[in-house]
Design goal:
The protein is an alpha+beta fold. It contains 15 helices and six strands. It has a six-stranded antiparallel beta sheet.
């Protein structure tokens, strides 16, 4: 009877609006009834476009060895093979990697883990990432235990990626609308890819320095929703959005309404797709509606000031402006990073969040890596309308 009550409680909790980290913790607790040697369960997502693995969820006893971490697959040949082959892997003695110098290898070893079972997470025919079971004992993963772990691996994959799949449906709908915006008001080809990853850099740095307590799930949310900040431009008439000259005061007011229109579009899609209960969806609302607010209260649509502006919107503002400055547009040449950084510093005195600006500047090497990886193939020659469409 107690087992039945517990299972009902577990299923009920898994169906509530709690974070995926909490769901993973619940499943970990259940798994330990059958495999008490499993001390850690972790999920790393596969960024196929950037060729990187990014920490996402973790449930372990004691301090977590890897948080807010990502690595290039080129630096992890064994993990790259796992993703390519889509086969699980048992390592019952992690000392075989003692010569490894990757941070993930060093951290796992430093936290006392002795054996590991890695499971590729296949969702809709695509490898979404890797699921790791770690133990502080050698030779923990026997054929008998793997039967149980495989069942839990599939369950964890379904539960942990359900939110990603649901968000994916919504994001796909919004992305379709977003692409329609950029067909009408084209920007540089990889602008959205770059600014999403700049947003991730800023969020990671804010968490690393302790200014904000973002976990990997929250950071992934910010990165995923960043490209949708301008979806409200879908509601802006062509005679305003595509006007080659400067906007009149009336036209500028219409243009600025893309923030509130974006919020309405998002709310409509959430309602129509029955996604109102989606976890962390408020971050998307904040990004769409508030990314043009300013720290001194001079922004729009509501004139919010300082910390009244949601942090997600403050992060996206820095990422968006930096990429606009360093990209070629029909009306301007690309600025150098040094010039853009100096300008961001000036803006941080009044308009932009100083901590967010500093977080981006502190990660210059990573910024340059993103620029190299997502460089636009062909840039248009400078000419045409001024930059008053923000």
């Amino acid at each position: 009877m107690k087992k039945v009550i517990f299972r009902r409680y577990l299923l009920k909790r898994l169906n509530t609006k709690i974070s995926d980290n909490k769901k993973l913790a619940l499943l970990h607790g259940t798994l330990r009834r059958y495999c008490p040697f499993v001390d850690r369960i972790a999920i790393a997502l596969h960024d196929t476009k950037a060729g990187r693995l990014k920490t996402y969820l973790s449930s372990n006893r004691g301090p977590s060895p890897l948080v807010r971490y990502e690595s290039a697959l080129d630096d992890s040949p064994s993990l790259r093979r796992l993703l390519a082959n889509r086969r699980s892997r048992v390592v019952n003695d992690l000392s075989v990697f003692d010569e490894g110098r990757g941070l993930h290898t060093l951290e796992i070893r430093a936290h006392g883990y002795k054996s590991s079972y890695a499971f590729p997470m296949v969702v809709n025919g695509r490898v979404a990432g890797l699921l790791f079971f770690n133990s502080r004992k050698k030779n923990s993963f026997t054929p008998r235990s793997l039967d149980v772990l495989d069942l839990f691996a599939h369950l964890i994959t379904n539960v942990a990626t359900a939110g990603l799949r649901t968000a994916g449906v919504m994001t796909a709908a919004l992305q379709t609308a977003n692409e329609m915006v950029h067909y009408r008001d084209p920007e540089t080809g990889n602008h959205l890819e770059r600014m999403a990853r700049y947003s991730r850099l800023v969020a990671q740095e804010l968490a690393r320095t302790g200014l904000y307590r973002f976990d990997d799930e929250q950071i992934q949310t910010i990165e995923s929703f960043a490209p949708l900040h301008d979806v409200g431009k879908l509601g802006i008439p062509d005679n305003v959005l595509l006007k080659p000259g400067s906007l009149t005061a009336k036209e500028r007011k219409i243009m600025r309404s893309h923030t509130t229109q974006g919020r309405r579009i998002i709310d409509a899609i959430l309602h129509n797709f029955k996604l109102e209960s989606l976890h962390r969806v408020d971050a998307l609302r904040h990004i769409a509606e508030h990314h043009h607010e300013a720290m001194d209260g001079s922004g729009y649509p509501h004139g919010l000031k300082g910390n009244k502006i949601p942090i997600e919107a403050r992060i996206i503002a820095v990422a968006d402006i930096f990429d606009a400055l360093t990209s070629v547009r029909p009306y301007k040449s690309a600025w150098t990073n040094d010039r853009a950084f100096r300008y961001l510093r000036r803006l941080s005195r009044t308009k932009l969040d100083r901590d967010c600006v500093q977080a981006l500047l502190h990660n210059r090497h990573a910024v340059e890596d993103i620029q190299a990886r997502f460089r636009d193939s062909q840039a248009p020659a400078p000419a045409g309308r001024p930059d008053d469409r923000r």
